[in-house]
């Protein structure tokens, strides 16, 4: 039989009557990630999702890398299926894992017998396969506590499967199972990490980016689009809503007290992002705010900026320090792009002495002379939508 993938499900298995909806969403996400890599059969049995190639032309290596970034999977193994017979299982171990068995020094066999009709117990089958492999490979010694290689044998409903140590999966829940949100994506380190973390909780995303040409360059815009592209293997397909923000920032510079500029600017961002959310059916906003990191991210400031919207504002990195955020950024592959030296709109007209303890009343007073609705609508009308 051909090589296939075994994907171990995480917290999804704890779900009750709606568990099938989680499994269906996971399978749909897997099919989408495998698009263009060949024809695969995807099905779920006994808390495991099977990904089985249906033709020799399937790109198994590319499919394997894609499966590592599917949320909802906590572990995955490349496996060989065989008949549920002890000698067939031994032969599959010998053929499929030969290279690993030759290079290892210590090993053990671990059997999981989901099909209780199989005539041998898990311990008996492990002892049989382990003993035979020990005879076949003089380089190996049995070590049941800290083996260099573990040979896994799984006896399931339709077949037996053999594989070596599983790789860790992405974890979390299938993207889309918990609805849709709009993430405010800048060119920095924090917002891509926040987007990744909320997608891991099963949320599909649209992205909003605020572009202030000519104060921010086309290269800065392309940097943000590249960050979005780097997030698509984790988040699925994305639409980036690029908002023309120059006119709003210039008006705020003319009309707004300098110390309140950043806060009022962020209030406009939240208003516009909520308009985008309502247009695309999203139920929340996502930001990369980390408590106390900059002046606009104190508790008082977050109260002021969040006061202008009536949908939840999710802040996945709010309790993390910069080093923790950087570590995740490196893991998901966005760090090197995030640190490219292209400015974003948040660095335009930065006040010398921003307010650290603002109040809603002060923000409203700073906005009193502005035609807020007209400014927001003009920005929304000028949005460029880029599908990735």
Would you kindly provide a written description of the structure presented here, covering whatever features stand out?
The protein has 388 residues and is an alpha/beta fold. It has 2 domains: 3-170, VC0802-like, CATH 3.30.2130; 180-387, HUPs (Rossmann fold). The protein has 14 helices and 15 strands. The protein has helices at 19-34, 60-67, 86-96, 98-103, 122-136, 190-200, 218-235, 246-255, 261-280, 299-306, 322-332, 335-338, 360-366, 372-381; strands at residues 3-9, 40-45, 48-53, 73-82, 106-113, 141-142, 149-155, 160-163, 167-171, 180-184, 204-211, 239-244, 285-286, 313-314, 384-387. Helix 6 (190-200) runs parallel beside helix 7 (218-235). The longest helix is centred in the last third of the chain and has 20 residues, at 261-280. It is elongated, with a radius of gyration of 26 Å. The relative contact order is 0.12. The model has no long low-confidence stretch (mean pLDDT 94).
């Amino acid at each position: 039989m051909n090589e296939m993938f075994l994907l171990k499900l995480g917290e999804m298995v704890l779900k009750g009557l709606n568990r099938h909806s989680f499994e269906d969403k996971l399978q749909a996400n897997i099919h989408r990630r495998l698009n263009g890599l060949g024809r695969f059969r995807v099905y779920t049995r006994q808390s495991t999702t099977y990904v089985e190639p249906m033709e020799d032309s399937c790109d198994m290596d590319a499919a394997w890398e894609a499966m590592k970034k599917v949320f909802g999977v906590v572990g995955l193994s490349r496996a060989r299926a065989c008949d549920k017979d002890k000698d067939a299982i031994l032969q599959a171990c010998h053929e499929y894992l030969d290279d690993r068995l030759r290079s290892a020094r210590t090993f053990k066999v671990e059997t999981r017998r989901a099909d209780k009709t199989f005539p041998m117990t898990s311990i008996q089958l492990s002892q049989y396969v382990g003993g035979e492999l020990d005879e076949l490979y003089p380089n190996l010694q049995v070590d049941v506590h800290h083996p260099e290689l573990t040979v896994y044998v799984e006896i399931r409903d339709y077949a037996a499967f053999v594989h070596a140590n599983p790789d860790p999966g992405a974890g979390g829940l299938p993207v889309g199972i918990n609805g849709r949100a709009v993430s405010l994506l800048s060119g920095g380190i924090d917002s891509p990490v926040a987007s990744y973390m909320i997608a891991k909780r099963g949320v599909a995303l649209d992205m909003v980016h605020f572009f202030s040409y000519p104060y921010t360059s086309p290269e800065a815009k392309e940097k943000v689009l590249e960050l979005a592209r780097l997030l698509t293997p984790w988040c699925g397909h994305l639409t980036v809503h690029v908002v023309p923000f120059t006119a709003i920032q210039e008006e705020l510079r003319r009309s707004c007290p300098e110390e309140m500029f950043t806060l009022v600017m962020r209030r406009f961002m939240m208003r516009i992002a909520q308009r985008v959310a309502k247009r695309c059916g999203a139920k929340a906003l996502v930001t990369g705010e980390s408590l106390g990191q900059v002046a606009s991210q104190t508790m008082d400031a977050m109260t002021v900026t969040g006061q202008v919207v009536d949908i939840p504002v999710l802040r996945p990195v709010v309790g993390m320090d910069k080093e923790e955020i950087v570590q995740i950024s490196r893991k998901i592959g966005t760090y090197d792009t995030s640190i490219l030296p292209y400015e974003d709109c948040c660095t335009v007209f930065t006040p010398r002495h921003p307010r650290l303890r603002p109040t809603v009343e002060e923000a409203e007073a700073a906005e009193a002379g502005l035609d807020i609705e007209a400014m927001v609508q003009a920005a929304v009308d000028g949005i460029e939508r880029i599908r990735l």
